[in-house]
Design a protein that fits this description.
7 helices, alpha/beta, Rossmann fold, single chain
Length: about 230
């Protein structure tokens, strides 16, 4: 699909990691299809995960009492957000598809990626009440969470010790992406790659490459609570 733009937001410290391989496969396969692929390699960029006063360039909207949400919204309107934030927003704005590639940390995404969400998806740019969920400001985009786990698939079932994996996806897919209007594709989960054989790891990588070949034909998942909690 020539002309499609993909942004991969990637959070892993080691380029030779399994996550690194998944990211490389996505770049390779999607580029082969004629897509234009950009990678935000958060650790390599030393991306700042903390939402602070430093994100606002120049004067504050209310210098007496600092409210990050208010200040970020007003700074976005004025074009006064720090350059690292505006650069990421520009990449998001241009992308048709966002792929988040990361290892699952404590039932969630790594802090550096959560910080990306906190700082980049500001009000006025990604959402603006009542324009959220199906009418969120990023409603013409798709997102896919591709991640690895420490535990095997059995652990993440409804009867397993960690519960249904969909419970963990609720805040990421529904609370962040769907809130901003983004349509969510089914997650791509590689269960416990460090605890399987080299052969099984190769199969996992192959399965990802195969899925990417027909990715643009996929329908988004149902982002209602029923999908996550049924």
């Amino acid at each position: 699909l020539p002309g499609k733009k993909v942004l991969i937001i990637y959070a892993h410290q080691e380029p030779k990691s399994f996550n690194g391989s998944l990211k490389n496969i996505a770049v390779e396969e999607l580029s082969k299809q004629g897509c234009s692929v950009t990678v935000s390699d958060l650790y390599a960029m030393q991306f700042e995960p903390r939402a602070t006063r430093n994100d606002i360039v120049g004067c504050l909207h209310n210098s007496k009492e600092f409210s990050y949400g208010v200040e970020a919204r007003e700074a976005y309107k004025r074009g006064d957000l720090s350059s690292d934030v505006t650069e990421e927003q520009k990449k998001v704005q241009e992308a048709d598809l966002l792929i988040f590639q990361f290892p699952l940390y404590w039932f969630s995404m790594p802090a550096i990626m959560k910080g990306w969400m906190d700082r980049v998806l500001v009000e006025g740019f990604a959402h603006q009440f009542p324009d959220c969920y199906n009418s969120g400001l990023l409603k013409n985009k798709f997102a896919l969470f591709s991640f690895t786990t420490g535990g095997n698939q059995e652990v993440y079932t409804k009867g397993g010790i960690s519960g249904d994996i969909r419970y963990l996806l609720w805040p990421m897919q529904h609370g962040i992406m769907h809130f901003c209007g983004v349509k969510v594709l089914a997650p791509h989960i590689c269960f416990a790659p460090e605890h399987v054989s080299e052969e099984e790891r190769k199969e996992m990588l192959l399965a990802w490459a195969q899925r990417l070949k027909t990715l643009w034909k996929e329908e988004p998942i149902d982002c209602s609570p029923e999908w996550y909690f049924k």
